[in-house]
Amino acid sequence: MDVNPKISKRDPKISERDPFSTLADSLLYIIVSFLPFKEAVRTSILSKQWRYIWRSTANIELDESFFVNHEESDQIREERRRDFLEFAKEWIRSYQEPTVKNFAFSCSKPGKFLTVIQEFIKFALKRNTKGLALDFSDPEWKENDTPSGALNLPSEFYKHVSLESLKLVACNLDVSAFNFRNIKDLSLGWIELNESSMKTLLNNCPLLESLCLKNCWNMFQLIITDTINPRLKKFVLEKCIFFGGPNWVYIDGPSLRFFKYSGLVGYFKMENQRCIEEAELDFGSEPEFDMLGDLLCELLEQLFSAKVLTVDSVFLQVVPCGTEPLRTSNPLNTKHLILKTSIHNNELLGIKFLLESCPFLETLTIDLGPSRIFPDYVPPFQFTPAYCWTRDLVLHKCLMRSMKVIEVKGFKGTMNELLFLKYLLVLGLLLEELKIYLSNDVDEDGNNIETYRKRAMERVLPSIISSKKLQINFMN
């Protein structure tokens, strides 16, 4: 590859139409390496000059989903998987560049192809890749599965100490040999991790800035401190199975900026979290309704500094069912609240709880969709859902003092949606913008999309609007 970029002589008429045609191949190699792998492949149809440029990209992603449709029969999927591996082998053989910046490989059911897959991994390591992502999970696995037969990593893997980003899914990980002192971004999925192995991993990653654990199992508790990982800014814990009881998570450090949790309600102790900017909470895994409001309220107060807060339907149903059913003991600093909800009757008190707990709220996003509704839900006190946004009015401070933007996604114009929206319009004194993204589904009466969209608009527009600055936009 020519490392000295030079403008080649080309037809000036072509150059006027296509400014890239004046660039040397060495520059095009750099440009294509900024593209996602699939987009890089598509550049091959642009012109003869671009035909083979994509083969020199520094960001390689070999994913069986490019070939395999997991809805097809087992036989067809197996044939497609073999085609994919042949493509991958040909790619590896023809690749001429000395280094690879990022290498990602994904293949389910790797058992029959262990030798060739290990050669792919060695290929990336020999080219001194800084980012490695290996995914051998099966789309058919269920949330609580603990699969066996994960792929063993070659010994060369543990000697590649220059890695800065690592993602491993469904791999057998030898924690005792894990010594990647330069890693900043670590993601592990479908891997057994006990308390001891997790501690070893964290101790050996002093530069860690982002940690993601998904579908891992056998942990008793998870402890992260700033004395071991002082640079950690992002932490994601999704659907991990804790051994012997409820989840127990302890985090002590001032550096965390982003926190995402998905799983069962557990015990959280998050000390000194004054720097968190965004938090996402999803408890959709809960099998049944339980009076765990105090645990969620305590977690919420520990995340008080989060400017952006996302909660799900289960959170809305459970959080008011604690000692304090109306609000958190101390106000939250949330400026943008995202509610993943269906505005079901079970969720109404949780919505009011959060509006009252967020006096500085500026943007409210109502992300409408299917919710995990508990049939055995018990409200913390007697109330009439139909009066929630009409007779039983609460003048939340955020509506009177700070809220400026409301976004509604998936709007259908149901009664609960309309009552809540009209309540916001009546009391939102400072509102500047209401953005309504209409649902593509048919409405509750089975009307076609255009008919129900028109009706939805007619239901909203006659509302009494308090803010003179408000602009209402309906979007598809």
UniProtKB/TrEMBL annotation:
InterPro entries: F-box-like_dom_sf, F-box_AtFBL13-like, F-box_dom, FBD, FBL13/AtMIF1-like, LRR_dom_sf, LRR_FXL15/At3g58940/PEG3-like
Gene3D superfamilies tied to this protein: 1.20.1280.50, Ribonuclease Inhibitor
Domain FBD: 397-475
Domain of life: Eukaryota
SMART domains: FBD (SM00579)
Protein name, UniProt field: FBD domain-containing protein
Organism: Rubroshorea leprosula
Phylogenetic classification of the source organism: Eukaryota, Viridiplantae, Streptophyta, Embryophyta, Tracheophyta
